[in-house]
């Protein structure tokens, strides 16, 4: 069915096969099931729907193939790879993302999880002492958490850390992480971690929220565990930049190359993951408050630059993009530099993928086009140009309508709303 609007939007329950898709088609995918299996575990901003990697895996790979996601995020591609009996490997600089992805792709016997949960609650209820030694050193912590939340979070964290089985411990750490924002005074649906002075929300009860998340995640894990019992595949989660990796990081077998790469890189200037996970970083002991800004520099699309870095106009070599960078530079020098660095990072990423993927292997990139200072940046088209320089050719490109957003991104009228994502399919030719 095609909806009769200015833009032809094709409604579908499932994406059609690659041979049925025309260049620049736009799809409205009616399948709203995006939380089956372990996809339900932990909220994560701007993650793409599982229907996209599922489509790419079915269309461009076979059983036993190796699928790479260089911007692993919360592991959507890796989960779908395992479910379709493919091996998975992914990179990410965000330690929370890596832990989420590791938990989501590690099948655990649900009976063991239930037993461990029962013991966890028994231990917590039997010990009424606050656990000062596991409370993070968050400046002005009582701004972010009530005394009751701090007390209960500390007890959950303390007894989770006593769990001996590392996979089970990680499962409970992610369950713990998933309740931190809800049990704080901070706004839940905002990208920026802040406490509203006008609409201060009551924090959720730690025990009730943990119990709710545990049983949601247990159901998803049970589904994954039972589905993967006959699949002889695995997923690897690696701490590394998407713009700096080689084949030796992926496999120890020099003759083995990646069969398919699928990813959803960050939007330019859109998501500051360290701002999203500020409280989780600290409660999980990944970063102290003073270290978070330094960590922000590791991300492609970061805005952490100094005046001496952006006082001169930088160019990429793409004529149209450089003209836009020049126009933005006249208004906002820093913004121009941020966009330049984003595309330089993406250029490096595409070259890295080109180096590790087999000939005729496909690189599927899912990305949205931003508006910066009222100027539309056709990111998808620029990435295709960089890919052509790196030995790829365009196989197809289409878009799909974005229907759900976990976090609200306050852009002050400068960033625009990204209403659809583009799916770029690149073919490695040389």
From TrEMBL:
<keyword id="KW-0808">Transferase</keyword>
<dbReference type="GO" id="GO:0008168">
    <property type="term" value="F:methyltransferase activity"/>
</dbReference>
<feature type="domain" description="DNA methylase N-4/N-6">
    <location>
        <begin position="33"/>
        <end position="97"/>
    </location>
</feature>
<dbReference type="GO" id="GO:0032259">
    <property type="term" value="P:methylation"/>
</dbReference>
<dbReference type="InterPro" id="IPR002941">
    <property type="entry name" value="DNA_methylase_N4/N6"/>
</dbReference>
<dbReference type="Pfam" id="PF01555">
    <property type="entry name" value="N6_N4_Mtase"/>
</dbReference>
<keyword id="KW-0949">S-adenosyl-L-methionine</keyword>
<dbReference type="InterPro" id="IPR017985">
    <property type="entry name" value="MeTrfase_CN4_CS"/>
</dbReference>
<protein>
    <recommendedName>
        <fullName>Methyltransferase</fullName>
        <ecNumber>2.1.1.-</ecNumber>
    </recommendedName>
</protein>
<comment type="similarity">
    <text>Belongs to the N(4)/N(6)-methyltransferase family. N(4) subfamily.</text>
</comment>
<keyword id="KW-0489">Methyltransferase</keyword>
<keyword id="KW-0680">Restriction system</keyword>
<dbReference type="InterPro" id="IPR001091">
    <property type="entry name" value="RM_Methyltransferase"/>
</dbReference>
<dbReference type="InterPro" id="IPR029063">
    <property type="entry name" value="SAM-dependent_MTases_sf"/>
</dbReference>
<keyword id="KW-0238">DNA-binding</keyword>
